[in-house]
Amino acid sequence: MDFSPFSKRRTRLMEQMGRGIAVIPTAPEQVRNRDTQHPYRADSYFHYLTGFGEPEAVLILVAGVSHRSILFCRDKDPDREVWDGFRWGPDAAREAYGCDEAHSIKTLDGKLAELLADQPTLWFSLGQESGWDARIAAALNAVRAQERADKQAPAEIRDVRATLDGMRLVKDDNEIAIMRRAATISAAAHRRAMRATRPGRHEYEIEAELLHEFRIHGCQAPAYSSIVAGGANACILHYVMNNQPLKDGELLLIDAGGELDSYASDITRTFPVNGRFSGPQADVYSLVLDAQTAAIAAIKPEATFLDPHTAAVKVLAQGMLDLKLLHGSLDGVIESESYKRFYMHRTGHWLGLDVHDAGPYKSGEAWRQLLPGMILTVEPGCYIRAADDVPAAFHNIAVRIEDDALVTEPGSGSGSEIITHEAPKTIADIEALMSENRNG
Ligand code: CA
Q1: Which residues lie near ion ligand 1 (Cβ < 5 Å)?
Q2: 13-50, pLDDT tens digit by residue?
Q3: Under 8 Å CB-to-CB from 148, ≥6 apart: which residues?
Q4: Which of 43, 203, 250, 402 is catalytic?
Q5: Among 191, 325, 363, 368, which is most buried by a count of CB atoms within 10 Å?
Q6: Which CATH number fits domain 4-167: 3.30.420.10, 3.40.350.10, 3.30.450.20, 3.30.470.10?
Q7: Of the listed 195, 215, 346, 349, which one is catalytic?
Q8: Domain 170-439: CATH class, spelled out
Q9: What's the number of CA atoms in the CB half-sphere (13 Å) around residue 362?
Q10: Which residue is catalytic, options 198, 201, 215, 345?
Q11: How does pLDDT run across 93-137, given as a tens digit for each residue?
């Protein structure tokens, strides 16, 4: 593994810090029950700066005239390694991960006060983890106790996450390459799910097809709980039970993406269980696809984060009027937000190490401008629950179509690249794929 992207990010952070010290711990292990742990995943900020995957590790950055990266990690432990696997140990980790120093995590508390002394600013994610807050408070008090020995505790504590969020918003080449691969794998998983779907199978069987495809191509895990929702279940936005049979004549909505090397992908496709869209299903599907096309067209450098949403809402609201789901004028429906009965969420979110990735959506009062290298989802939908005032033909039809868009350089064409484009989404492409294994 090439660790230079991580050291470049450390340098960029230290350049923004001026003079000061940053303390960035990784995530703690989480007990699942008794002596069994949840699968371990490093803290996203820590991973962003180190690529180091072991628990019980802390990165300390000392910025000033010269920059220093210091890693604290577990010692080598031949006995534990028999049970739990390889540990780098400080010496090998320093070399492999390109840090200036590395020490045993056991020495951290002893060294922390010494490191904090006479630094004007401490960069730390106060409030993220109470154990760490207490540890930092103890170290600060230890420095203050030495004030007569001319040691000064940092006068200022700043949230290192705010600066890192700004960095994480614009992906570097290394991140884009991983996210393209995660998107390709996830698109293959959606194709596999389409091929496997037929009436009588269960939602969990299709979920199993997704998991197979994620894992066989190297994704470590799903990036979030997969939603495999047949028929009316798709009206439940965060449906994850995935335990119902799939019925002839209904749609199946799948929102699922793999996580590769800590980066998420996020795709939603909606398709007919029997491989053919009915007339009303096609009407709603075409509307959502048109809204997505309009939203994607609005993604370009200098547009704002809100622009794709505004474009999608306009198309959806007009379509809801045309389908007689709503009545009145387009302006009226948008003004009163009555469209929210059928489209109640926003059209996208940042995507990266976290599926709902770090980074502000506004700067001050204004929506964030899009910049080349940002990656966001585009996911309009239309969810029609059964109700007396809604045409019966549309009852329980729920459609969402979601892709991942990389904002491209100005003048490079369309303004964005859809990195998940290999998952079919036109009615013709979906029906063609689904007919492949149904003939005969
Ligand atoms: Ca999603």
Answers
A1: 255, 266
A2: 999 999 999 999 999 999 999 999 999 999 999 999 99
A3: none
A4: 402
A5: 325
A6: 3.40.350.10
A7: 349
A8: alpha beta
A9: 3
A10: 345
A11: 999 999 999 999 999 999 999 999 999 999 999 999 999 999 999
